[in-house]
Amino acid sequence: MGYAYRVKPDETVQLREINPDEKGGLSKSEALPLTDALGKEMSDLLELLYAANSKSLLLVLQGRDTAGKDGAIRHMLQFLNVQSCRVVPFKVPTVEEAAHDFLWRIHEHAPARGSIALFNRSHYEDVLVVRVHNLVPEEVWKRRYAHINAFESLLCDGNTIILKFYLHISKQEQEERLRAREKDPTKSWKLAVADWKERELWDEYTTAYEEALSRCSPAEAPWFIVPADHKWFRDLAITERIVKALRPYREEWMDELTQRGVVAKREIEAFRETLP
Ligand code: ADP
Fold first, then answer.
1. Average pLDDT of the chain to the nearest whole number
2. Closest CA to ligand 1's atom 8
3. Cα 235 to middle of ligand 1, angstroms
4. Which residues pair with 168 in a beta bridge?
5. Which of 91, 130, 140 to mutate to test the pocket of ligand 1 (most atoms within 8 A of CB)?
6. Ligand 1 centroid distance, CA of 12 (Å)
7. Three-state secondary-structure class, residue 24
8. What is residue 39's DSSP assignment?
């Protein structure tokens, strides 16, 4: 068990059964040192991933407006090496992107071996906003779940570790966050009437999320539902899941590095032998 809920393959997700206000029995002051220790472990594991250069990591973040995607990314970036990590936001497709299949713009941002990609929104928008706003006919978006599963399976076969996080906030918490933005001039740039309009479609988004989470959570590329009404709990839950997913590779990566060290040392010694 972890703090974030792992969606089992082919499970039918009902978001109302998962409490966005969950705190895992912890207070904020109890959680912060745990998150910090896990963050440091994550940082070490990601250094190994980078150095071993055999696997890549794709982290997908989805959630409604104000769910905390940006905040979660900011938190993770404290523990990441900028050399090996890229944040990729996916916005409304450009004219060129829209003229291709929906995965065309995604694939080029898939992380290369040894690197990490953090997707702020993703190919899932093509079965979420696109579905809710009828941007393509139903027979088109319905077929996309299978395309998404095949695409993610392709990435996994190419040695990518995929972890997907749905940041689960309550409708009330969203209203509080939207209103708080209006009171804080430093957040004015985030104000958008579109957020209030999207909120009117809360139930439609719930249905769309439930279907995406239910249909696209194979064991190799799972979805995690992260209770996100409390930012500190969100950060703990995500960090814990990343660490748990990477720990099993520690030994393999250490072995790879040790082996490489042996070969490199042999080469250095052989070179020294050739010196006068
Ligand atoms: P964010 O809300 O992520 O901070 P923006 O305010 O620029 O950033 O919002 C990006 C917008 O792009 C969102 O409304 C999202 O639904 C939309 N979007 C992303 N991908 C697609 C897509 N494939 N088709 C239509 N809209 C999309």
1. 97
2. 91
3. 23
4. 227
5. 91
6. 26
7. coil
8. H
Residue where the block lists tokens 């995690």:
224
Query: Which atom number of ligand 1 is nearest to the Cα of residue 91?
Result: 12
CB-based contact 243:38 (threshold 8 Å):
yes
Q: 25: which 2 tokens? A: 């029995």
Which residues neighbour 178 within 8 Å (Cβ) at sequence distance 6 or greater?
65, 66, 195, 196, 199
Q: Which pLDDT band holds residue 1 (cuts at 50, 70, 90)?
A: confident
Encoded amino acid at 58, one letter: L
Q: Can you list the pairs that 265-273 forms with residues at least 24 positions away whose Cβ atoms lie under 8 Å?
A: none
CB atoms within 10 A of CB 187: 12
Residue 15 burial (CB < 10 Å; 0-12/13-18/19+)?
A: middle
The residue whose CA has the least distance to atom 21 of ligand 1 is 92
Going by C-alpha positions, the residue among 228, 116, 121 that lies closest to residue 168 is 228
Q: Is 183 helix (H, G, I), strand (E, B) or coil?
A: helix
pLDDT digits 0-9 by tens, 89-131: 999 999 999 999 999 999 999 999 999 999 999 999 999 999 9
Look at ligand 1, atom 10, and give the residue with the nearest C-alpha.
Answer: 91
Q: By the 8 A CB rule, do 58 and 117 touch? A: yes
Residue 59: what are its φ and ψ, rounded to 5°? -110, 125
DSSP state of 216: S
For 175-233, write each residue's pLDDT tens digit. Answer: 999 999 999 999 889 899 999 999 999 999 999 999 999 999 999 999 999 999 999 99
